[in-house]
Structure formats: structure tokens, C-alpha cells
Input
Amino acid sequence: MMSGMSLIRAIDPTHQRALDTLAETLREGGERDGAVLLNLQEEDRVPPAQVSAFQHAIADGDGARSAIDPACSALARCLPTREDVSWSHHVTLNALVRHGYARPIALDAAQAPPRVRLSRPCGTDAQGRPRALWVTTTRTADATATRDRLGLGHVDAAEVLYRIDVPMRDEPAFIPTALDAGTYPAWRRPPAASEDPWGLTRHLATDAPTDPELVVVRESAAAAARPEIGKHLGAVTTPPSTGYLAHRTPRP
Amino acid sequence: MTTHRSLRSAPGAPPDPTLPFDACVAWVRAQARGDVSVARHELPEDALAQAWTRASAADRPRLSRAFATALADAAREPHGDAEIAALAALAARTELTLALPTLRSLADRTALGDGSLGEQAQSAVLHALAALQPRDGLLVALWTRLFLLGHPWLLGLALTALGRSDPARALALIPDAVRRERDTPFGLGEALWALANEPAIGRARLGRALVALSPALRAVAEQELREVGGEAVLAGAGARPRRARKSTTRAASPWFAARPSVVAPPRLGA
Output
């Protein structure tokens, strides 16, 4: 059932004041805050129960920007699917090491190996519990082009990018919504006319809808028989573009 | 949490250059704790590294001092593991040699000392220290001790850190490293690849070290290098490279056209 409304138009009138405060905070911020506001305003695909829970969490907090991510992540979503083909997750070596997937061995980009073995399946935490994982069908070989196609605005120049193939047999997968993106300004929902059963990444420079994307919860990942491998795409060569911001009209 | 207006600058943007230095340090620490940039896709240090990249040449030294001061301040607090991990990783990414004294001091709270830091912070601190260490051999004893401790998560780091500070010693430890890998895997393949790409060692020199191994140990080392795609290093060591297997990965774009029967996720609410 479609909610037909944005995330910041209150279902319960008593929440409207907090939502107005949140919108005002974002309006007063920079361009990226404006992009986050746009995401919240544009989102019309979230069921009313989830919209209501999101708004309740915002109203319970201080209505500030920092309340968005906790409010988003508190929600359970349902959009089950099954896939058994080549979806993959792209991630930097630094992130793999910092999240404990890979050992801290390479001291610089030149020492990043062609393949890195993960200590646990991608999309699980240190205790083996599943965590939401963003996957796409992107197979671009160049690291910089991949970063740009996927809209990975947090990946800076000199970061080393790896691709991890993610088998998705009977895994719950979801079309990403603004609730998944939280305060990530480079994300944006697909154009309203899109009928594809997947989301679309946004190109960092042009904001153009680019590659299919899903969020998967790898409930069976802990049972993976073989260690997963990250495949080296190389070092990103340029700082991330913010060109996407020029293509949005965040302020109503 | 502070409410200074300048602390609300967008993630990835450098701080206002007119911000007092103490407030700049507070801004850095708030970012490192995740108080400000909370996007779930990012590491706390991502926004700080981007701020450093975008800062003007004139502003960078001040920002670097703020990073180093923030790490030193965090190191004085008892429960700052996550913040220390973020700032240590940031130091490695921005080649912040100003942070070396604090990193050296923090090493005493890793497995090399009392082990009071959490695992992630230990890993980040030792990795940053290894990446930033002066190449004068001053830390050779420290890396050797880390190697001998044999912690599976840090043993590979000890080897690559030694490769940077004392290449000859790192090469001499390879037989022991291979035996340890055989007992408890620690990422020997990744470490050998790193040594082969260490300028002071290089593929030819590592290759000679592998050739000198006993056949049994050499087989382990070669298999490890193959696992991480290090066939090029093996060629330098005189090993016969295996024929590359044909990729089973399907091309991306034809996938949707070729699989009309695949059940794709229903559109939310459809």
C-alpha cells in the first residue's frame, strides 16, 4: 500500500511541529542538508506504518539532523525477494579493515593485494548477525568510474576500492528508500516514473539514475562455506564530485 | 554535545578557518565520535579525510595540528576507543607524522603493552604507526616483538611493518611466518604481497627468499600468494604459474535481458 506522502508530512498532527523543526534545521544547513531534506520530501514509497514510526521517533528526539539516522534504523521493513545472480558490494580497503573484515596488513595503496580474503561474510557484524548491505549490478573495472556510478560520495581520492560478489539465494532484499539512506545526501530515489523492481544508483557528477541497486539482509551469510574474496579495482584517482547537488532543487 | 554553529558544517567540508583552534579540535573530535556525521555508509574519519583534502594549502597545517591534538586529547580519556580508532586511521590516511608521538605512546596500550585498548583501536593504532614510522629502524624491536607475540590478527602487520623498517629482518622471518601460517592462518598471502611491493624489497628479492625455503614451506607460501592473486610475484620466484581459470562471473547488463524469469523484488507497496 502506498503512503502517497512524504516522510515529513505528519500522519499524526501532533508530530508536525517536530517535523517542521527538522525541516527548518536542514534548510538552514548546507547543500548536503538540502539534499537530505529533498530525500525526505520525495519519499512516497514507504508504508504508512513505517512513516508513522519514523515520525514518532523524530518527535521523541530533538528534531535535529542527528535524529534522522537513529529514527531510520529503528524501523523494520518488508520487501522480500529472491535473487541468484551477480550482485556485488563495493567497499574501500580502509572500511574492510576498520569493520574487521580484513586484517590491517597493507601499509599503502601499492600494497593492496589483487584479492583480499574476508574474515567473515560481508554484511554480518562481528557476532555473525546480519547487517543491511547495499548491492548493485555494477561491473565497471575502473575504481574511479565505479565510485562515481555508485554515488559513493564518501570515498575520497587514493582510497582503494574492492568488489565483493554477494550471492543472494532466498535472502530478504529491499528496494532502498530514504529510510535506508538516512542522512546520506548523495543518495536519491529513482525517478517517479521508474517501474523497475530495484532502486537506481545516482551518478555523483550528473545525478543521473545509473545502475540497479538493492539492500540485502544476508540472513544465511553466516553459513557461507568458503571465505569471501574482495577483488581489487584499484585506487580512486579524484576527489568525489558534488555535481549531483547542482541537479537537485532541495528547497521547495 | 556542543552546539557551536560551526560544528554543523556539512560532512566533508573543512571547518571555518576563523574557528578558534580549541573549537576546531572539538569539531574534529565530534566528527571522530560520529556525533556530527552519522551517515551509516561512512566511517567517522571519512568526512575528516575529505575535509583535509578540500582544505586550502594554507589551512592544512592548522587542520593537521587539530587532528594530532584531537588524537592526543582522546588518548588521555579512558573510554575513547572508537574515537582513537577513527583518529589513528585518519592519521594514516593523511600521512600525519605529527601524530607519531601519540601513536607510539598508545602502542603501550595494545598487545605490545597492557592491551587495554579494544581490538579495533589496537589495530588502527598499530597500523597507523607502521604506515607512518620513520624508516630509520627505530621501531624494529617493537615490530619484532609483535611478530613473536604471534597474534593472528596482527602478525601480518608486524611482518609488513618490519619490511618497511628492516627489510632484511622481515625476509629472514619468512620461514617462521610460513610455519605460523600453517598452524594458525594470519594472512601470509596478503603479507607476502605487501613485502613484494615494498620498495626496499621488491618482487625479485622476495622471490629469492621464497626460493630459499624448504619445498614444504615454499608450497605453503606459493599457495598463499595464489590465494591473493600474487601469481606475478611467483613468476619472479621461479614458480610455474597456474593457468588462470575462466571467470564464472556473468556480464552485468545482459543479465536483466537474459533472465526474464527471475523473480525480482516487488516494488514497495505494489
